[in-house]
Write a sequence for this structure.
């Protein structure tokens, strides 16, 4: 990467973290998006991309990159995020007087199909969590995996939120302070059955924990990667012949759906999930509506005519 672009790139990321208070995961995505774009342009021009080249780019250049992404079967959701990343980077270049072009603002975000959450049944969720422990040869790893999935299904945490926990977060309190998207904090009840599993894992884990150590660690005793838990779910799906929808995030969806099934109100579920908008949480009522319609269509006398 050209040194001037690299400097601007680094400063832009620093600005995002400081001013917009974006999470580390979001920053990683933005960084990857813009680097991929610059690498694509560099490959197709056969030369190093300069600030001047970025300033002189036409809308057709951006559309070529988007076509390349579509040909790779990149989802419309991911493409929308990539466009957002590019607009942010080019806006930064414009605001710092490195370029004058505003062409990137002409890019339209693709329409995204609003997908409903795809929860799994409570029976499958419990079986999945049990198998996460039973299938491991090393006892502490099985207990670790079970504890993580318990946080997803028992507390509604995102996988990133569970893996970002530190040892000091598990204390005498019966709740967790979770830092979610946009670094917004929320308080989540920590049920005894979840806390007991975590404490059993801590007791069995070979790491001598200090208060600011990561709670969930890999074999090298450093912070666990989300990819490991995704792989664990892949193995469980294979072993138990579960549907492809049985993912770590499906356990979080199931937490919300099963709470709603049991009479939980949307506002409470919104707070537990850390949704900034109630409309996001309302997707779960649509799931319930679909289930009711399906039951009606199969059982009601009028539906059989």
């Amino acid at each position: 990467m050209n040194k001037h672009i690299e400097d601007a790139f680094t400063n832009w990321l620093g600005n995002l973290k400081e001013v917009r208070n974006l999470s580390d995961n979001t920053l990683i995505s933005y960084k990857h998006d813009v680097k991929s774009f610059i690498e694509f342009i560099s490959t197709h021009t056969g030369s190093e991309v300069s600030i001047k080249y970025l300033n002189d780019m036409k809308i057709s250049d951006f559309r070529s990159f988007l076509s390349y992404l579509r040909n790779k079967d990149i989802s419309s959701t991911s493409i929308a995020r990539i466009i957002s990343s590019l607009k942010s980077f080019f806006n930064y270049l414009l605001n710092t007087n490195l370029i004058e072009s505003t062409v990137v603002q002409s890019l339209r975000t693709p329409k995204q199909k609003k997908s409903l959450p795809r929860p799994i049944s409570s029976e499958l969720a419990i079986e999945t969590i049990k198998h996460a422990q039973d299938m491991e040869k090393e006892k502490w790893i099985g207990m670790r995996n079970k504890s993580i999935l318990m946080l997803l299904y028992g507390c509604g945490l995102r996988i990133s939120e569970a893996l970002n926990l530190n040892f000091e977060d598990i204390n005498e309190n019966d709740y967790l302070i979770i830092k979610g998207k946009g670094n917004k904090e929320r308080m989540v009840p920590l049920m005894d059955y979840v806390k007991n599993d975590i404490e059993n894992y801590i007791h069995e884990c070979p790491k001598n924990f200090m208060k600011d150590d990561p709670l969930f660690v890999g074999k090298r005793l450093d912070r666990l990667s989300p990819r490991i838990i995704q792989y664990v779910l892949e193995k469980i799906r294979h072993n138990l012949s579960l549907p492809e929808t049985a993912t770590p995030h499906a356990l979080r969806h199931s937490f919300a759906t099963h709470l709603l099934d049991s009479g939980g109100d949307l506002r409470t579920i919104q707070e537990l999930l850390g949704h900034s908008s109630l409309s996001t949480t309302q997707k779960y009522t649509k799931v319930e509506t679909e289930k009711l319609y399906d039951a009606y269509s199969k059982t009601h006398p009028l539906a059989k005519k």
The first strand starts at residue 175 and ends at 179.
